[in-house]
Design brief:
10% of the residues lie in helices and 32% in strands. The protein is mainly beta.
């Protein structure tokens, strides 16, 4: 198909498409990009000797999905392109899946085997709905009901769920077992095992930020699962977390994504020193709770703005505004009033008290012992 034909087929589902104008050679790279008009599909080519032919196999305008076929030399790759909740997406269909001839079969091929077995057994009314009797889906992650009761000591809170790139899904409660502990950095996005991490020279390790994650683990989730690009889902019971089968596609060899990564993120460089990162005084040195007065405010009050013109540079009581000293005097007589007219108990009245000379210029309240009932 030509670029113009592809653009018309993508426009049928309400999407925009931009194809590289240079030679169509090498494996295609399909991404979602953004410009001033919003999101669009962007197709570029890695270059090489093999020519590329692109063809739209099927479009479903009502569902806003289409299946794209790419022929690169003697190899074929299929991509499911569409709109999910709030954004456009593209997913590579594994070549091992047979009989993928349209959008529906491509969606089924992207479901994990455990999900397909549940769908065949429970027969939901809509097997591709994000929430049905067989599973709950959020993006590329499937949540299948599981009968487990993990110990409370091993349940994690606000646990990130990621496949190595993109934004994280955050599980309110998570439990994992098995898997391999790996150390992830920008230079090693798929992670290094403990032995591989220790084999790196120390000065190289210290020059990078490392995160300790768990790969290929059995992950279970309960409670809320959040993601900025998807609606929040709520799981009342424990669910097994499974990722779609996109990782098995040949096209994913150009993507830096591990198969499954779930675990609490931990920095492996520059341990945090309390009070040093943000300039605040450590909690142990702050003393009791309460607000600290502005410097020089003891025994001073701000000059009334109604009695003087506003002065340039006076923005607040802590910004160096003009202040005047007032001579000490007896406290004002204040009477506490009750809003209810049927109250019959005595009302406490504050009595004038002569304060010692050494405390007249200090800020503070009259002690409660000076309040007497009439």
């Amino acid at each position: 198909m030509s670029s113009e034909t592809l653009e018309r087929r993508f426009a049928a589902i309400g999407a925009r498409l931009k194809v590289a104008t240079d030679s169509w050679r090498g494996d295609p790279r399909i991404d979602i990009r953004t410009d001033g008009s919003g999101e669009f599909f962007d197709i570029r080519f890695l270059g090489g000797d093999r020519e590329v032919d692109l063809e739209v196999v099927e479009t479903q305008p009502r569902d806003r999905h289409l299946l794209l076929l790419a022929r690169v030399g003697g190899e074929k790759s299929k991509f499911l392109c569409g709109h999910d909740e709030r954004h456009w997406f593209v997913a590579a269909v594994p070549e091992a899946a047979r009989g993928v001839t349209g959008v529906a079969s491509a969606k089924a091929a992207l479901q994990p085997e455990a999900v397909r077995e549940l769908v065949a057994r429970m027969r939901p009314k809509d097997p591709f709905r994000r929430r049905n009797v067989a599973y709950v889906r959020q993006g590329e992650w499937f949540f299948v009901p599981a009968r487990i009761d993990p110990p409370d000591a091993f349940v994690l809170r606000d646990e990130p769920l990621t496949r190595g790139a993109g934004k994280e899904h955050v599980m309110q409660y998570a439990y994992r077992r098995g898997g391999v502990v790996v150390y992830v950095s920008d230079r090693h996005p798929q992670g290094l095992t403990q032995s591989e991490f220790e084999a790196i020279p120390q000065h190289v390790r210290e020059s990078q930020f490392w995160e300790q994650l768990v790969r290929d683990a059995e992950v279970y989730a309960r409670g809320a699962v959040r993601h900025p690009d998807h609606a929040k889902i709520q799981l009342s019971t424990w669910h097994r977390v499974l990722m779609n089968t996109e990782q098995g596609a040949r096209a994913m060899r150009h993507r830096r994504l591990p198969r499954l990564t779930g675990g609490r993120r931990r920095r492996r460089r520059r341990p945090r020193i309390p009070g040093s990162s943000n300039g605040r005084t450590p909690r142990s040195e702050r003393g009791g709770r309460g607000s600290s007065p502005c410097p020089g405010s003891v025994g001073l009050i701000a000059e009334s703005s109604a009695k003087r013109p506003r002065r340039r540079g006076s923005r607040g009581k802590c910004s160096g505004g003009s202040r005047v000293r007032l001579p000490p005097g007896p406290p004002r007589r204040r009477v506490a009033r009750l809003s209810s007219p049927i109250a019959s108990h005595p009302v406490a009245v504050a009595q004038p008290v002569e304060r010692p000379l050494e405390t007249r210029r200090a800020a503070g309240s009259i002690p409660a012992g000076h309040i007497k009932a009439p």
